Amino acid sequence: MPKTIVRHLAYLFYLGVLILPILVLDHEAALIRPFRDQLSSYIALIALNILLLEFFLSGRIRFLSRHLGLDWVLQTHQLFARVALAFLVIHPFIYSLPNHPNHSPGPATSEYLGMNGAGLISGIAALIALIAIVALALGREEAKMRYETWRFTHMLLAVIVSALGLYHVLAVGFYIQQHTLQIYYLSLGILAALSLAWTYILKPLTQSREAYAITKIENITSQQFLLTIKKLSGSLPKIQPGQYLWLKYGSSKPYPENPFSIALVNHEQKEMSLLIKVVGDFTAQLQQARIGERIIYIDAAYGDFAQHALNSEKPIVMIAGGIGLAPFLSVLSKAKEIAFKNKIHCIYGNRLEDQIIDITKLIQLADLKSLTIETIVSEPTAAYTGLCGMIDLNNIQTSLQKAQLNPKECLFFICGPSAMIDATEAALEQLAVPLAQIDAEKFQYNLAAHTPRTQATLARCIIGTLLIIAVSVWRSLS
Question: Which helix (H) or strand (E) holds 89?
């Protein structure tokens, strides 16, 4: 089944799960409350549902990332976190019923809200923590927050928000008094906790028995090196070209841990290589590691980037920005292995000439006759003879013309910094390349970027949100 159809079906299933609580509750009890109070309770229940389901959309469930793609999973995770925040900010102002008098407190009824001190504090605290999560996620790069610090803070705040939100609903909610909903939310909360326990407790324990040894560290450029690791027992995990892994160095404890694209795989030798750029303490420590050290722990493999690249009859265009070359190395290596005949054109951009990696030499692609490579340097020296500037419309068009490729007939795969991906997708739109022929994988999304993918993603989220609101209104009126 085409990936697009699978994603559409998965999205419909996700929306169905979000509205499930308001569909299964005892509707007769809802008829005795005013419309506004029913609607407020419904969107609050859906918001809590979103927050608990966020734990399964963090990108750490391998099945989802392999079959739906990291791009889809993280888009849904990030956008619907904002939907939940909007619902939770709005819902207190929709209520019309008064709270119980101070002299006669009690649970929520058809005539009164059930707000008490603990319920009020837990709700406000959960909302503040959720605002902090979204703000940190949006402003991490501007705040220059270390990736490991942000991940730990994000996880901790997510636990706090979910626990406080669940307590708030159980303590003061009207519909949650129904046993069906109590069982549903408690079960979902337990499953969310188990997903965290698996990722950050149980998995590290299993990893401690499966260390990888460092067999080679090769400095490719002044800031990039190739780290080769070998599994000491058993076979390598199943790895497809274009996938990535999570790596720990020194200990299998949950943190620090970073994602890296898998550049090369040798199943016979039980080795894999990662192309890494030195950008902080973690990667600097890896570069200085000793050969033979048995202190590498991995969780692999994730993602579906470029999975269908070598199954198509269309020409392939790979557009890499800097270290974004890494996943393409595994795709090119596989193309060499299967003697891929279709045209492959690689547009490879860097800031400086000494950052350019000799791809054909690194993975010995002399036999891959269908491959052509175009380098672009934004700050060239006088001796540089290739294309100059950014990976933009003009350079992409020039490169494709030199390779005698019609952009409308090609499959495009893009990897690099988020801004570079957005700019490239915008350029391809101007070349009339259909969105279905563009594959990119990002960890962070700039919703202000005017690209076909961003517009489609926003449209999908808006339509889904409007559908949720429509169902909530319908249930409140019926």
Answer: helix 70-94
Residue 233 near residue 210 (C-beta atoms within 8 A): yes
| pLDDT, position 130 | 96
Neighbouring-strand partners of residue 258: 247
> Within a 10 A sphere around the Cβ of 179, how many other Cβ atoms?
9
Backbone φ and ψ of 142, nearest 5°: -65, -35
Give the model confidence (pLDDT) of 151-189 as tens digits. Answer: 899 999 999 999 999 999 998 888 888 889 999 999 999
The model's pTM: 0.89
Fold of 212-302: Elongation Factor Tu (Ef-tu); domain 3 (2.40.30)
Q: What residue ranges of the chain have pLDDT lower than 50?
A: none
423-470 pLDDT per residue, tens: 999 999 999 999 989 999 776 666 666 778 888 889 999 999 999 999
Amino acid, single-letter form, for residue 435: L
Q: What is the pLDDT of residue 424?
A: 95
CATH 3.90.1150.10, applies to 312-444: no
What tokens does 179 get?
């046993």
Q: How far is residue 340's CA from residue 318's CA, in Å, rounded to a whole number? A: 15
Domain spans in the chain, listed from the N-terminal domain onward: 24-206, 212-302, 312-444
Q: Under a CB-based contact definition with an 8 Å cutoff, are residues 274 and 226 in contact?
A: yes
Phi-psi region of 144 (alpha: psi -120 to 50; beta: other; left: phi over 0): left
Q: Return d(Cα 286, Cα 301) in angstroms, integer.
A: 20
**Order of strands, sheet of 387-388, starting from the edge strand that comes earlier in the sequence:** 387-388, 371-377, 344-350, 316-321, 411-415, 438-440
Angle between helices 35-53 and 70-94 (to 10 degrees): 150
Q: Is 212 exposed, middle or buried (0-12, 13-18, 19+ CB in 10 A)?
A: buried
Distance CA 363, CA 371 (A): 13
| 37-70: pLDDT as tens digits | 899 999 999 999 999 999 999 989 999 988 898 8
Residue type, 93: F
| Best CA proximity match to 7, nearest among 82, 83, 64 | 64
What stretch of H or E contains 53?
helix 35-53
